[in-house]
Amino acid sequence: MSASLSFHGAGVFLTSFTPVRPSTFTGLLLITSICVYLYARNAIKHHHDVEFGKRMGCKPSAAKLVYHWPLALDIMKDGFRAGREKKLLAFFTEHFNQLSPTAEVKILGGIGYVTQDPQNIQALLSTQFQDFHLGPRSLAMKAMIGDGIFTQDGTAWKHSREVLRRQFMKMQYQNLKGFRKHLETLMERLHTSSGVTDLQPMFYRLTLDTTIAMILGQPVGSFKHGIGDLFSKAFDQASLVTGTRVRLGDMYFLYCPRGFIKACETIRRYTYQFATEALQREVESPVESDKTSFISELHRDNQDLQLVRDQVLNVLVAGRDTTAATLSYAFHLILRNPTVLETLRCEIVTVVGHEKDISRAHIQQMPYLHNVLQGTLRLYPPVPINTRFCRKTTALPVGGGPDGRSPLLVREGMPVAYSVYHMQRRQDLYGPDPLAFRPERWDGSELASIGWGYLPFNGGPRLCLGKDFGLMLASCGIVRIIQEFPGIKLAPGEVLEEPGTERQHLTLTLSNAQGCKVVLK
Predict the structure, then answer these.
(1) Confidence of residue 226 (pLDDT cuts 50, 70, 90)
(2) What is the CATH number of the domain that holds 76?
(3) How many domains, the chain?
(4) Which of 166, 203, 211, 428 could cross-link 327 (Cys pair, CB 3.0–4.6 Å)?
């Protein structure tokens, strides 16, 4: 080939680039450089993570969620169907029963872990608390409950918790007299009921009233009955959607059905109105500094009324839902077990008799009542499943290797879901009858060392501040109803189902989708 032909060919080759403008070429070069940089950075990070895992003795998880469609779309489809049928926890149980207590999960291309192992849950919530955070779970909840203690991490969360802790310390419920007015209002409502009565909505009204009056320090009438009904309806709708968004993790934004945003706006508007009216009342009728309400304390601490509203809403969520669901499930279980009802009735008669002023001393003298509540919370913890996201690469104590007993590498950004609901039903932790409601199992040494295997109120730094408040209110509620209606029984036609097979509402908290239908006698 001649030199002239070679030069001509080279010229054609070079002229082929002439349509590419310098700015375009620079842009392509920049994009390529960024891609190469990101790839190299991720490769280096992956190498460092692998080396960290080797030093910690980590082994890969042998237990993996089995799926048949790409991206585990079959699991997603079946999960959404189970959610519509109010059987989502039963759906999870079906899959968890085929896996080890800690397993790898790959869905929509993402990878994470799910655990029901007490050691790993203790690490997530306590011993390795700083290694994990709320991540996208917080963002998924903010549309509904804003920026409050349940959506905050770090310094903001610590500050909110301290403010709320001071309020619980200041509250005058230690002798339980503060509950009496609201319990007697409940008794009046129940006495006006005839035929079949659904206790569940009555319990939600009770817990909303006690939260408003005793935690927020406002008159119950300030949350007007009509507004309360609208708030509750919007709240139920929004929390159902929010629960699904939380379970979607990073992909939460994909689920925003019609009516969700409007329901969230309704909740936040009514809460804002409630908070501003409370502040106005205290301006018009000043009180001593040590008697100011929680809402005033919040406003003094932060002048932003929207942040005050969000904190109030977070408190309403916790105070209203968890204790009401526990009361409903308690009667769901008690009335399906006549021996339990009779034993509990005898204890109430012996300790309290017909006394309506129930004291903390009374409650402390009723160990069987305590066992009943423990048994209820074991089978139906208020927050059955939760998630944390890895803040920095770390290792969980167990879950790796063929036997699942080696440490497990968790890389930065990975989600770890933990199920208290399923952990508290494990046969190896609770014996051969883990689904049985048997309050006696809490007597003696059978569960003396259960430790982190029983966790209805969370644990570690995020331990529920309202634990004692909720348990005392639930205890008094059970006592007063059985005192007032000693012949209470299940409504005709109610099915005696094995715990976990009934239809359940799984929102931000767990509740019975079938209510608690009884005949009061």
Answers:
(1) low
(2) 1.10.630.10
(3) 1
(4) 203
